[in-house]
Specification:
By secondary structure, the protein is of the alpha/beta class. 27% of the residues lie in helices and 23% in strands. Strands 4-3-2-1-11-12 form a six-stranded mixed β-sheet, covered by helices on one side. α1 (20-30) packs parallel to α2 (49-59), α2 runs parallel beside α3 and α4 (132-154) runs parallel beside α5 (191-197). The protein starts with a strand and ends with a strand.
Length: 246
């Protein structure tokens, strides 16, 4: 029987000058101890290229592959293209609206990624109706849903499959956050491709005061935002039949 694949996951690392040393130490500790490092968005504090370059310096010497999606903070300064280039140049594989497949001891680890977006959950959902600006918001979420679906379909044959998001695809990991902001923390529209393609685990961030563990049907969902973890990374093991904390 093949050994389990180990992944270290975290969201909302918010790299900047203040925490670069702490982050560098955390990544160095994870390097070589896991098969992949997954970052669930909000890689920077304000989306400044300089902050991305700090994270790039941390990731460049790592032997362990790093996969990431962007978060809302990473879009703040409208420097996404430069930010993404800095991280990609350091070997970070960006899977925003995409996917990646890694070979680990003869088994394939598939990662389908998307930032996700807002839209809400039952009883608080944004409809595709009304003013053009609101319909643009709905359309943006639609594009994220479609990209996630395409990514999950592309990794369907992999023995280990992960959906990596920033925004929450279920309200089960939002408990602890004020209900009035749930519509801004994610959308259950993201759950549809997850239920259809059935990855082994879903990882997201963004909900700093949310719950660590939830589910979409019987598919486990983990909110790996650093404030929720209370640590730098959380390590999971995937053994082909499911996922468990290492």
């Amino acid at each position: 029987m093949a050994r389990p694949i180990r992944i270290a996951a975290a969201g909302d690392v918010h790299c900047d000058e203040l925490n670069r040393r702490q982050l560098g130490e955390a990544f160095a500790r994870a390097d070589g101890q896991v098969d992949a490092i997954l970052l669930a968005g909000d890689l920077t504090t304000y989306g400044e290229v300089e902050q991305a370059e700090l994270l790039a310096e941390i990731c460049r010497p790592l032997a362990t592959p790093v996969y990431a999606v962007l978060g809302n903070h990473d879009w703040h300064c409208k420097e996404v293209e430069q930010l993404t280039a800095a991280l990609s140049g350091a070997g970070v594989e960006m899977v925003d609206r995409g996917h990646a497949v890694a070979e680990v001891d003869g088994a394939r680890l598939g990662i389908a990624g998307a930032k996700g977006f807002v839209g809400g959950f039952p009883d608080s959902q944004l409809p595709d109706f009304g003013e053009p600006l609101l319909r643009q918001v709905y359309a943006e979420t639609s594009a994220e849903v479609e990209a996630l679906s395409a990514g999950l379909e592309a990794i369907a044959a992999c023995e280990h499959r992960v959906a990596l998001l920033h925004y929450a695809p279920t309200l089960t990991t939002l408990e602890g956050e004020p209900r009035g902001i749930w519509a801004f923390l994610g959308s259950d529209r993201l759950a549809a491709p997850i239920l259809e393609h059935r990855p082994h685990v879903v990882l997201h961030g963004h909900a700093h005061a949310g719950a660590f563990q939830g589910a979409i049907g019987d598919i486990p969902v983990y909110n790996v935002a650093v404030p929720v973890l209370g640590s730098d990374f959380f390590v999971f093991e995937l053994d082909g039949s499911g996922v468990r904390p290492a």
